[in-house]
Amino acid sequence: TSSQQAAAMAQKGIEEARLASMLQSLQANDPMIDHILVYSKFVVAYLLQQDQPNPGWRKANIEGPVYIYRRRAQPLFQLLVKNQFSTNDLLDDMHPQWELDCQNNYVFYKVEDPSKRIRGLWFHDDAERQRVEGIIQNILKDMQVQPSRSLADPTPVPPQSFPPQNDAKFELATHAAAALGGHSDALVVSRDSLRGALRALADDDTFVAMLMQSSGSGSGDEVSMIFMRSATTDLAHAAPLVWRHDV
After folding, report:
1. Where are the alpha helices (DSSP H) in 77-190?
2. 3-state secondary structure of 228
3. What band does 5 get if pLDDT is binned at 50, 70 and 90?
4. Burial level of 118, CB count in 10 A (0-12/13-18/19+)?
């Protein structure tokens, strides 16, 4: 019925808002997190003690919501139990060599590092446990099929990145943009404006010195500086195009 559909849509909207709020909270500590794959409101973390006279499971003094999320850089997937009692959270990078074992209300997993203890997560609701287990299994299967994807360590690139500002090529580009008179995302360059910009650059001692530096010429060489100015002015007269550049 229409009322049931409306209720379902309202519930979906509430859940989406809740996920958005959770994501924002997690991103405050890790801006590279981009998507929560699954969460459960409350778990209790245990660690398997094997190096004591009485081996067995011990509480890790970590209780709270558990999240499995995806990141924009390595490690691509992480499991986090956000401790509601302290800042001592349980955070593990997911790895294709994880070993997973589950039973009613419990998820047990052994991480790839043999020096770390086996973990156990207790769920109040076994349906929640099954949902989290399914996501973990899917991620591990995907990692095992494509291990290079999960183990590669690329340098994360921000959405908008710029070369270091002391880089000569970056400074040359900055001078050119300033000479063309704007920093808009869409820069329209006509033949006349390009000529004018190149003439202005030819008269700019800083620009000519940087051009000489990038070409390997000595900045104190007066003959080279005159040549660079002449070459830039010749380019201004030879500019044959109407160029549109969309950043």
Report:
1. 126-145, 147-151, 168-180
2. helix
3. confident
4. middle
Give tens-digit pLDDT for 23-57.
999 999 999 999 999 999 999 999 999 887 888 99
Number of residues that make up the chain: 247
Owner of token pair 């920093």: 183
Q: Give CA–CA dist 94/74, Å, rounded.
A: 10
**Residue from 146, 123, 142 nearest 133 by CA:** 123
CA-nearest of 63, 53, 61 to 83 is 63
Phi/psi at 161 (nearest 5 deg)? -125, 150
Structure-block tokens of residue 246: 């969309």
Residues sharing a CB contact under 8 Å with residue 195, sequence separation 6 or more, in sequence order: 236, 237, 239
Question: Following CA atoms 49, 51, 53, 59 in sequence, which dihedral angle do they give, to the nearest 10 degrees?
Answer: -20
pLDDT tens, position by position, 78-94:
999 999 999 999 999 99
Cα–Cα distance measured from residue 174 to residue 167, given in angstroms and rounded to the nearest whole number: 11
Beta bridge partners of 38: 68
Regarding pTM above 0.85, the answer is no
